[in-house]
Amino acid sequence: MSAQEERFGLFIDGKWEEPSGAARFSTRNPANGESLGSFVAATPADAARAIGAAARAFPGWKETPAPKRGEILLRVGQELKRRKEEVGRIVTREMGKVISEGRGDVQEAIDFIEYMAGEGRRLAGETIPSELHAKFCLTVRQPKGVVAAITPWNFPTAIPNWKIAAALISGNTVVFKPASATSRCAVEVVRTYEAAGLPPGVLNLVTGAGGVVGNALIEDPRVRAISFTGGVETGREVYVRGAKALKMVHLELGGKNPQIVMDDADLDLALEGILFGAFGTAGQRCTATSRLILHEKVYDEFLRRLNERLDRFTIGDPLDPAVDMGPVASADQEKKVLGYVAIGQAEGATLLRGGRKLTGGAYDRGYFIEPTIFATRHGTRISTEEIFGPILSVLRVGSYDEAVRVANDVSYGLSSSIYTRDVNRAFRAVQDLEAGITYINAPTIGAEVQLPFGGIKNTGNGGREAGSAAIEEFTEIKTVFVDFSGHLQKAQIDPR
Ligand code: UN1
After folding, report:
1. pLDDT confidence bin for 2, thresholds 50/70/90
2. Would you say residue 484 lies in a domain?
3. How confident is the model over 414-446, as pLDDT tens digits?
4. Beta strands in 96-202 (DSSP E)
5. Most buried among 1, 11, 182, 435, by the most CB within 10 A?
6. Pick the catalytic residue: 252, 334, 386, 465?
7. Which CATH number does the domain housing residue 28 bear?
8. Which structural domain range is residue 315 located in?
């Protein structure tokens, strides 16, 4: 830890604190190694204190009328708007996505917070007729209690807010455990809630290793629900541990998202789509396009144009607005991505371009990898396993049916896309593609916060985030029967 490095603590019960003698870790800019700060490697005891604070704050927060909770969220949104440029730059420096996307990450957080603030005046239940006289039946939504938000590094302000804002508007209190690599972004997220006047204990931050803090959160009986976004292996572990304690576990995991380009597609449009979908965020989105499924009639022409565009693609300092793609997020990511280049070559895929780590000059200080394209047959590891980096597999197909078969034949099902001018085929694809999200004539990335987000198969366990689905994630339904007949009525038993 260098002398000038900024130090950050845990946020528990409305106070920033530094447990004495705590172990610490730093986060670094993946483009140049600069430090973004030093953070506390929390212990299970720290996690327990955060849970205790959240549990104590819960009754008061639950009693706070939802529209009042919404007013606080609106202030959080205003605060984040005011700080958008500053926080966007921190996102870019800590995670490596280009600055337009750093700002976009923060904008997605703002959009969702504002949307959830409005939800404070809805939180709707249902009214349903009774089979008996003078009896009223309805449902109301109630918070679950203390919830744990365990979040990834790739959307370090948006995804935490998807969870935190939805949990808070529903009346829960939260312990937030961010990916270690983006702890500084997590601090900035929490600061916006602090500045908006959120009562102490309602939102708590514990930084540190998943294996220590995450597990402590999952196993503590006071935590009633866990919302996790991350890799499939960790997700499975979270699910199993949570299941043992019969907790609600919400999982958002990986993807192997296809973009299909049919022979009647607008090729220029499809080209813009694949560039954004495959190489935006250096391919490090759950929704990134990692498979390009090309109809044989446009295969050569499309790849020629794609190559031409990538010749002009710039890779470099993500803070430079002229740069198209920044580094991958960490040394681990770099190792994983380069490992998949080697796997692709070993399994006989044709490396059409890229595949190397960029070196020389400023590149030597960061984790820069060329945009990489493999031509491969369906079924190879590179075309079926999630890579989470700038590697695109191209698959050649002869028909719509084959395209759908290939698209669906993977273990994930998050996002999907088809480019075609045939309206009938487009609607068929909506029915046929096995994914939680389908885009017509648009790339696999770019979900909007007011719509449900999530996937099928190994992408999750059936839940959805964002949109009104977010409220379902964080509330229990209470069914209420009000009998105003003045005498005992017996459902199913009284004569009809
Ligand atoms: C993710 O990669 O986990 O649709 C989330 C998108 C973004 C969200 C991605 N709005 O790409």
Report:
1. low
2. no
3. 999 999 999 999 999 999 999 999 999 999 999
4. 127-129, 135-143, 146-150, 173-177
5. 182
6. 252
7. 3.40.605.10
8. 257-440
Q: Is the pTM of this model over 0.90?
A: yes
What's the pLDDT score for residue 381? 98
CA 465 to ligand 1 center in whole angstroms: 11
**pLDDT at position 160:** 98
* Residue pLDDT, tens place only, 234-266: 999 999 999 998 999 999 999 999 999 999 999
Q: Are residues 275 and 172 in the same domain?
A: no
Among 97, 108, 259, 286, say which to mutate for ligand 1: greatest number of ligand atoms within 8 Å of CB: 286
Q: Looking at ligand 1, which atom is closest to the CA of residue 448?
A: 10
In a domain, 293, yes or no: yes
Does the residue 188 lie in any domain? yes
- For ligand 1, say whether the CB of 446 is within 6 Å of any of its atoms: yes
- Percent of the chain exceeding pLDDT 90 equals 98
Per-residue CA distances from 308 to 292, 302, 304, 367, 386 (Å): 16, 10, 6, 24, 26
> Known catalytic residue: 296?
no
The arrangement of strands across the sheet holding 127-129 comes to 127-129, 135-143, 475-483
Cα–Cα separations (whole angstroms), residue 177 to 122, 168, 213, 402 = 28, 15, 7, 42
Residue 1 banded pLDDT, cuts 50, 70, 90? very low
Q: Specify the ligand 1 atom closest to the Cα of 284.
A: 2
**Please, which residues have CB within 8 angstroms of residue 335's CB and are 6 or more apart in sequence?**
none
Nearest CA to ligand 1 atom 11: 445
Are 284 and 432 in a shared domain? yes
The reply to whether 263 and 187 lie within a common domain is no
Q: Calculate how far, in angstroms, residue 159's C-alpha sits from the geometric centre of ligand 1.
A: 8
Q: How many domains does the chain have?
A: 2
Whether 364 and 237 map to the same domain: the answer is no
Q: Are the CB atoms for 293 and 259 separated by under 8 Å?
A: yes
281 lines ligand 1 (CB under 6 A): no
CATH number at residue 418: 3.40.309.10
Indicate if 232 and 368 belong to the same structural domain.
Answer: no
Q: 136 and 229: one domain?
A: yes
DSSP-derived letter for residue 353 is E
What pLDDT does residue 285 have?
A: 97
The alpha carbon of 469 and the centre of ligand 1 are apart by a number of angstroms equal to: 16
Could you give the CA distance from residue 309 to residue 400 in angstroms, rounded to a whole number? 26
Rounded average pLDDT over 23-42: 98
> Is 217 contained in some domain?
yes
Burial of 382: CB neighbours in 10 Å, binned 0-12, 13-18, 19+: buried
Domain identity same for 436 and 475: no
Return the structure tokens found at 440.
């017509």
Instruction: Judge whether 286 counts as a catalytic residue.
Output: yes
Same domain, 200 and 297: no
Per-residue pLDDT at 4: 78
pLDDT in tens, 347-369: 999 999 999 999 999 999 999 99
